Amino acid sequence: MLTLVLVASLLALVNGHGRMINPAARNCMWRYGFKNPANYDDTALYCGGLQNQVKQGGKCGTCGDAYQGPRPHEAGGKYANGVIAKTYKQGQIAEVTVELTAGHMGWMEFRLCKWDNPKVPVTQECLDENVLQLADGSGTKVPIDNTKRMIIARLQLPKNINCKQCVVQWLYHAGNSWGCEPNGKCCSGCGTQEEFKNCADVAIEPSTFTPATQRPPSTKRTYEPPMETTPSTRVPSTRAPSTRAPSTRAPSTRAPSTKRTYEPPMETTPATRVPSTRAPSTRAPSTRAPSTRAPSTRAPSTRAPSTRPPTRRTTPPTRRTTQAIRTTPRKPVGCRAANGPFKQPGMDRWCQVNCRRKYCPPSHCVC
């Protein structure tokens, strides 16, 4: 009974590890619909175990197999068939997902190798040339704290690499085993630790070259419209006289409205001038005898004229304005609207009023 319990606990320790699921690694592609052989122990690619890795001098297969072999997850092996798990764009931010069935602390890193030969095993030297940077600029290592089972790393793909078959390597360096550093420091996570590796086949399409081919036609199209618009703007410039004609007609409609507002002052000015000319006629008879009788008018002239003239002067303006309105059309009989577009109702009166003020354009009035 005790033996069965120990075996069960050992199996639990062996089965609880991790795998890279996006892009799907060679060992777990079968779980996500890819036509690849099934590996039911796909979370245990940990270099044959910690003791075996130590025995091999810390070495491990590039895709998690034991260094001494066999290596079924490398080219030529059962699970390495060159099946492309995902296609990316050159220089894009790639999200890589890792599933941990049991966390062991530590950290993760990801590497990329442009290989383009699925029949030849990828080398660790090629993978080490491109340790992928995290998109946030924090470095290359993703720390593991055992609080998450799904780890998503956002990685910056190289801007100078495109390929039909690249290999992405996931490296998980655990940190839950007791060990000692060369300087004598011993702790959980110090010294040699358990490591896991997975490999996934991906493609990276070029993306920076297509915009370059699209730019020349775009620049030509931007220059064509200005060439077409310049003649279109010149045509209206020649038609400007046709638009100026209505602009001159506009005053004809506005003139009556504005001239009516000016009519009262125009009529009052002649009204004041009319009595000024008639003043001699009215004053002549009045000055025959009374003008010689200045002594008699000395006292009344100060009393009576001071009061009477305002009344007489205020009343005459009203009478004179009425007379001015009647007489205004008589004097400028010779001014009338000119024949043409200005020969409209109200223009004769407009010419009569404005020609008095010496504003008598020949295009509008004839006197």
UniProtKB/TrEMBL annotation:
Residues 208-220, 229-259 have a biased composition (Polar residues). The keyword ATP-binding does not apply. It comes from Owenia fusiformis. Residues 1-16 form the signal peptide. InterPro entries: Cellulose/chitin-bd_N (IPR004302). It comes from the Eukaryota. Residues 208-340 are annotated as: Disordered. This is Uncharacterized protein. The keyword Nucleotide-binding does not apply. Keywords: Signal. Residues 275-306, 312-327 have a biased composition (Low complexity).
